[in-house]
From TrEMBL:
Cleaved signal peptide residues: 1-23
Annotated protein name in UniProt: Zinc carboxypeptidase A 1
Originating organism: Exocentrus adspersus
Family: Belongs to the peptidase M14 family.
Names of required cofactors: Zn(2+)
Alphabetic keyword roster: Carboxypeptidase, Disulfide bond, Hydrolase, Metal-binding, Metalloprotease, Protease, Secreted, Signal, Zinc
Active site as annotated: 380
Gene3D superfamilies for the chain: Metallocarboxypeptidase-like, Zn peptidases
């Protein structure tokens, strides 16, 4: 009898401990998303004041002028913010009344009944990190002569940082390197990386695309953050490294070029926290080490983000144009033309600083300035309607297929310039 009672007690205690130690999903109940459109530089500067405030989360970046900026605001700060906007005569609308409701809605619509079969890929649902790795590992089994994976590091929480190489024939070829999800919540980025992998490896129409070029694709740079957005906090952006007050570093402010110069924060709770030092994060170190060990071979670098429909190249930290501005602009426009031809989606092409506000410490600028990769781009993929970071899973296919047309243009250019040596721009 006593033993039974003790057993029950123990079971309750265990359940209680499981309940308190198992992470509870962060709720965004009452959080609103405002869309503010600064009409002058002064108005844009006013908005920048809120960037470091933990009650404010900039879903899209502040752009020069006349472009809407989406800002999520915590319940306690909304009244004051609305007063501020009214007083300053800033133009705004509320685009999401309650973020939690929106997330719940999407969860119920997108919650999967079954896991993706191990080794398979899907573009009708968002895949978890282990599913993504299982797929690329399966490709190395099914296509051993062209696909290999390599673990280029371990995340802060110990997950594999895995890249897939796609190549045939000679070694030491020119490399196209594509990475995604350094920002955890930008869920549309990994499917784009996966679709490129899928088309190259599994679509026999494209076998020529890895004969003269080696592709290296890193589908989830920040797997800890990515998993955290699935399990705990849908809108987590940073890595998951621990700190004294707030966890995580913005990986795209953590690279050692013009680190902490502009558009980055030294406050650890900020969404753009640059870290206690450049390359404090193991995830950014892994990218740096990959650049170092392939110096001279990487000809094109693409960093996939969302959201904004932007195709940006260096620099982010200075308005001085790069010496090869014309080439980068012209190539970007041709990539955009190819994307637009599919269903009319139009990207804004330009230097990051001309399209956005100044930023520094990102991988794109680092790749060009330190990595020696002349062709270096950030692609800000489209938002899902008004849904921000969580485009409905039904929007994955339209996005990945149109980007693929742009990727082909990038590929043709790299071949022309570096393989055939017949650059035409
Ligand atoms: Zn991003």
């Amino acid at each position: 009898m006593n033993q039974t009672i003790f057993g029950c007690y123990l079971q309750t205690l265990v359940l209680f401990l499981v309940a308190i130690t198992h992470a509870v999903r962060i709720s965004y109940d009452g959080y609103k998303v405002y869309q503010v459109t600064p009409r002058t530089r002064v108005e844009a500067d006013l908005l920048r004041e809120f960037e470091e405030d933990i009650h404010f989360d900039f879903w899209s970046e502040i752009r020069a002028v006349d472009f809407p900026v989406d800002i999520m605001v915590a319940p306690g700060a909304q009244e004051e913010f609305e007063d501020f906007l009214d007083n300053q005569n800033l133009e705004y609308t509320t685009i999401i009344e309650n973020v939690e409701e929106k997330i719940q809605e999407e969860d119920s619509r997108q919650r999967r009944q079954v896991r993706v079969d191990r080794g398979n890929v899907t573009f009708t649902e968002y895949m978890r990190h282990d599913e993504i790795l299982a797929y690329i590992e399966q490709l190395t089994v099914d296509y051993p002569s062209i696909a290999t994976t390599e673990v280029i590091g371990k995340s802060f929480e110990g997950r594999d940082l895995t890249v897939i190489r796609i190549s045939s024939g000679a070694s030491n070829k020119s490399i196209i390197f594509i990475e995604a999800a350094i920002h955890a919540r930008e869920w549309i980025a990994p499917p784009v990386a996966l679709y490129i992998i899928n088309q190259l490896v599994e679509n026999s129409n494209y076998t020529n695309m890895y004969e003269d070029i080696e592709w290296v694709i890193f589908p989830v740079v920040n797997p800890d953050g990515y998993e955290y957005t699935h399990t705990d906090a849908r809108l987590w952006r940073k890595t998951r490294s621990t700190a004294t007050i707030c966890n995580g570093v913005d990986g795209n402010r953590n690279f050692d070029f013009q680190w902490m110069v502009t558009g980055a924060s030294s406050w650890q709770c900020s969404e753009t926290y640059a870290g206690r030092s450049a390359f404090s994060e193991v995830e950014t170190q892994a990218v740096k080490n990959f650049f170092d060990s392939h110096r001279g071979r990487i000809k094109l670098f693409i960093d996939l983000h969302s959201y904004g429909r932007l195709l940006m190249f260096p620099w982010g930290y200075t308005s001085d144009p790069p010496s090869d501005f014309e080439e980068l602009q012209s190539l970007g426009e041709r990539v955009n033309d190819a994307i637009t031809s599919v269903r009319g989606t139009n990207y804004t092409v330009g230097t990051a600083i001309s399209i956005l506000y100044p930023t520094s410490g990102g991988s794109r600028d680092y790749a060009k300035a330190v990595g020696g990769i002349d062709l270096s781009y950030t692609i800000e993929l489209p938002a899902g309607g008004n849904a921000g970071f969580n485009p409905d899973a039904s929007e994955i296919i339209p996005v990945v297929t149109e980007i693929w047309e742009g990727i082909k243009v990038f590929y043709d250019y790299v071949v022309e310039k570096y393989v055939n040596g017949t650059k035409t721009v």
